[in-house]
Amino acid sequence: GLEEGAKNQFSTFSNFITTINQKKEGIGNRNSPTQLVIPNIKNGRDLPPLCLDVRQKQRMSIDTLPQELKAPFPPEPSLPTRTKTVKDFQDDMEKSKASGDWKAVHNFYSTTFDSFLEINAAFKKDTNSPFNTIEDSGIDAKFVNVVYDALLNTPQDVQKSVLKGIINGLLQEWTGPRTKDDLRAYCILLQNPQFSNTSTYVIYAHLLRQIAALTEADHHFLVHWSKKISQKRFKQVVDRLLQFISLRLFPAKPEEFPPMVKCTWWIPSATKVLALFNAANSLISPPIISYTDFYNSTLDHIDLMEEYHNWQCYGNSHRFSFCQYPFIISIAAKKVIIQRDSEQQMISIARQSLVDKVSRRQKPDMNMLFLNVKVRRTHLVSDSLDELARKKADLKKKLKVTFVGEAGLDMGGLTKEWFLLLIRQIFHPDYGMFTYHKDSQCHWFSSFKCDNYSEFRLVGALMGLAVYNSITLDIRFPPCCYKKLLSPPIVPCDHNTLVGICGVTLDDLFQIMPELAHGLSELLSYEGNVEEDFYSTFQVFQEEFGVIKSYNLKPNGDKIPVTNRNRKEYVQLYVDFLLNRSIYKQFAAFYYGFHSVCASYALLLLRPEEVEILVCGSPELDMSALQRSTQYEGYQKTDLTIRYFWDVVLGFSLDLQKKLLHFATGSDRVPVGGMADLNFKISKSETSTNWLPVAHTCFNQLCLPPYKNKKELKQKLIIGISNAEGFGLE
Q1: Where is the active site (predicted)?
Q2: What angle do CA 262, 252, 247 make, to 5 degrees?
Q3: 654 part of a folded domain
């Protein structure tokens, strides 16, 4: 990075800022960062705006752009002739290092970065070719990488000359329409490693502002060009943008930056540029980097509910909120937003119930503030279905469960037990609602037709209640299920609108029925005559209660042969039939059940993968992490009993570790925040060592007698965790 001398140099940029602001004022607000919005869902309520999602980015092409964005691009000015190659530059670097004379290298850097034209002259693969397509940026990526890798190893005056040149380029390009050469220059400048240093942030901010203010057509090119950047460089640019946002929010040295009131546009500009890279990342399968690499954990420490309310209240204005760009918000932060939103809804519903009771001059009852579910263990599913059906109006109240004939009071533990047992019964193969696929180890909706789909609605409501009440469930649905659950994320007002229908591919089928998906993949790659060798039509067959039924994939499908020309259509229709059409009524009931509890704008913030994590938690158990975060009451972590306990637990099989977690917390899943979020506590039980361990699942607390040796502790612990169904009251 740059040293103290460089910092002094950059502290004198007030003239630069003044010049930029003057030019900005001269052209009005044309270049202020704009916010991308999603269109309103047809027949739905007005939604707060989000940044343009990847589906829209994928669909966007020059042919489909509005007429005003199709204006002829300005002619590219002729570029200076530059003949230096990668080898020439590397030779100059070696000579400079050996001799200490950096003149040739200094001249190259100062000339190359002096203007956008010079950047193109140096790094464009062929200066005589226009490179006006989204497929090829025309940038010599190898040369760019070599030049940037060497930059931070050059003397300070060389590095300063690059930054001065960038300032010149930004001033020259502030006004007027952009050419493809300008876009190439922006793409190259974003990769400059100097922008990792806070002393360059004033320049970096103005670069980001100009890129954020480009037209949609220009953004379209940048998105497609960015996806061609190598994974290493792509990740560096993303990390640099995230660091810029973090340090502007919480600067280590506030005096390094202009006052926040004078640069409120810094964060919106950087976030919008980050959105372009997120769109580029989503266009590639598999993506260049994980979606979690776009999370900014710094945002976990800001007032998230204020951000959420700003997004809800001022969604259609130009007021910035991070919720417009949900890819940057971590799953932990989204969980906080959903929990608080749920709590506010619970309080609002409970208050309304109280007001209604008082207005009718009836005596208030504490039970009216809760969703009280009373069930018999022997009739768990039918009782639960009846209770939830009768109490639809109370679904958004705090859940409390009572098992008939048991003395346990629900402080959270009975609720967890109810969820666990109910899910276990509903997903049992003998129940017939879901089919378990051994190859993929997941459940999928049974396509059997029935007269009443209310039980599917119950499962959806259960999932919604789990999210609403912050309970994790052991449900093994494929990722496709959560994609369908967010299609659309807000229930349409028009009940004739289809729900739970999403675009599905062969990859989605691979996650559920890998053997069938492999067969369809073989069909697509078959080199022989498909019609003669397979003798198939656009028709599928399914067994229902011992009877084989046929379904046409398209009108008169039984009369249309599958050929080499139409086999792609056949495979797509087949996949759509299996994952959408054949289970539509079942999934629609499931969808409405989930959203009857979880109807919230907060769902707009979530990716399908994030919904799965919120519902199911993580199946990965890290007992060492649990050991590090465990609290003790009556014991010290160095006590012999505690040392015996952890020796035994860390040596358990995965199955026994899950049983221990279920015994102590009521669930064998790890919450979003990891083991530390369990707040697990081990308390000393003053009872006889002949007693088994006792757990208070409401508080994630294990009461452990001071067993005399490891063998006795292991024996009693295994007996306790293996017989852990039912509740008593001390």
Answers
A1: 698
A2: 60
A3: yes
Q: Give a yes or no: residue 626 inside a domain.
A: yes
- Round to whole Å and give the CA distance between 227 and 294: 15
Q: What is the pLDDT of residues 194-205, one digit of tens each?
A: 999 999 999 999
- Taking residues 362-375, what's their average pLDDT? 80
- Rounded to 5 degrees, φ, ψ at 253 are -130, 90
Q: Dihedrals φ, ψ of 545, to 5°?
A: 55, 45
Structurally, the chain folds into a number of domains equal to: 2
Nearest to 231 by CA among 150, 295, 141, 132: 141
Q: Name the residue among 437, 519, 428 with its Cα closest to residue 478.
A: 437
Cα angle vertex 300, ends 294, 304, to 5°?
105
Share of the chain above pLDDT 70, in %: 86
Q: Is residue 649 part of a domain?
A: yes
The span from the CA of 132 to the CA of 138, in Å, is 9
Closest CA to 468 of 369, 600, 330: 600
- Global pTM reads 0.79
Query: Does the structure show a pLDDT above 60 at 9?
Result: no
Decide which of 246, 275, 294 is a domain's last residue: 294
Joined tokens for residue 659? 């049983």
Alpha helices in 27-99 (DSSP H): 54-59, 86-99
Tokens found for residue 643: 């040392």
Query: Across residues 630-640, what is the average pLDDT?
Result: 93
Tokens of 173: 């390009």
CA 179 to chain CA centroid, nearest Å: 34
The domain of 652 spans 617-723
CA atoms of 703 and 260, how far apart (whole Å): 52
Is there a domain that residue 496 lies in?
no
Residue 90 has pLDDT above 70, yes or no: yes
pLDDT for residue 618: 77
Measured between alpha carbons, how far is 199 from 204 in angstroms, rounded to an integer? Answer: 10
- Please tell me the distance from the alpha carbon of residue 107 to that of residue 371, in angstroms, as a whole number: 75
The last residue of one of the domains, among 294, 320, 349, is 294
CB within 8 Å of 352: residues ≥ 6 apart: none
Rg (CA), the chain: 31
Q: What is the pLDDT of residues 531-564, one digit of tens each?
A: 999 999 999 998 877 788 899 999 999 999 999 9
Termini Cα distance of the chain = 64
Please provide residue 290's backbone torsions phi and psi, each rounded to the nearest 5 degrees: -65, 150
CA distance 702 to 642: 12
Annotated catalytic residue within 323, 598, 698, 703: 698
Q: pLDDT tens-digit profile of 652-690?
A: 999 899 899 888 887 777 887 778 788 899 999 988 888
Would you place residue 726 in the very low, low, confident or very high pLDDT band (cuts 50, 70, 90)? low
**Beta-sheet strand order (sheet of 681-684):** 631-633, 681-684, 701-704, 694-696
- Please answer whether residues 186 and 165 qualify as being in contact, where contact means their C-beta atoms are separated by less than 8 angstroms: no
Active-site residue flag, 698: yes
